[in-house]
Design brief:
By secondary structure, the protein is mostly helical. The protein has a single domain (26-59, 73-183), classed as Up-down Bundle (Ferritin). It has seven helices and no strands.
Length: 184
């Protein structure tokens, strides 16, 4: 005897069986949800750190500094950091959504430490006007970014790769900081 039609669990009919079902998986939904939280949060943290420390072209202290020859246009920093913080947020979302629990906790801890060091650089350099300390601080950040990439790679290679541009920019920023120190 066949169960009543209301008790049967049938797959919905597709118009074209050759076409794949594009319903997002649980993991895809989880990544999206985490990205909707992480990306704005990290971008806003970066913006707050920069804004509260008085960084940028509007700072009278920064304006009087001798700029290195490799110093890019001031507007570029806001564009690049927004992009990098967004990439960091997506990378973090991938790690948070991962089911690789054994590697997640250390990766998240390393990310939190490097993010805190990142966010403290602007107050050190721009807020406290400590160019030399800023250089050593950014060197610490460089080591922590490399460690974060290594930890993230155990959870998600894509998340680790998303931090690649960040690593390159921190290398450039370290060189820039060194030249500011040498010139001022």
């Amino acid at each position: 005897m066949e169960p009543p039609a209301s008790d049967r669990h049938e797959e919905p009919l597709r118009q074209d069986p050759a076409q794949p079902d594009h319903t997002p998986s649980y993991r895809q939904k989880s990544v999206l949800l985490w990205a909707l939280i992480c990306v704005p949060a990290i971008v806003l943290l970066g913006l707050a750190s920069s804004g509260l420390s008085g960084s940028g072209e509007d700072s009278p202290w920064f304006d009087m500094l001798v700029k290195p020859a490799i110093y890019p246009p001031g507007w570029l920093f806001g564009v690049v950091w927004t992009f990098l913080y967004s990439m960091m947020g997506f990378a973090l979302a991938l790690v948070l959504a991962s089911d690789r629990r054994e590697h997640k906790k250390p990766a998240l801890a390393m990310f939190a430490v490097q993010l805190a060091v990142n966010l403290l650089w602007s107050p050190i350099f721009f807020g406290a006007h400590m160019i030399a300390i800023g250089f050593f601080w950014i060197m610490l950040l460089l080591v922590l970014v490399i460690a974060t990439i290594a930890y993230f790679s155990r959870v998600s290679r894509v998340a680790a790769a998303l931090l690649g541009p960040y690593l390159l920019w921190v290398c450039f920023a370290a060189l820039l900081n060194l030249q500011f120190w040498q010139l001022n």
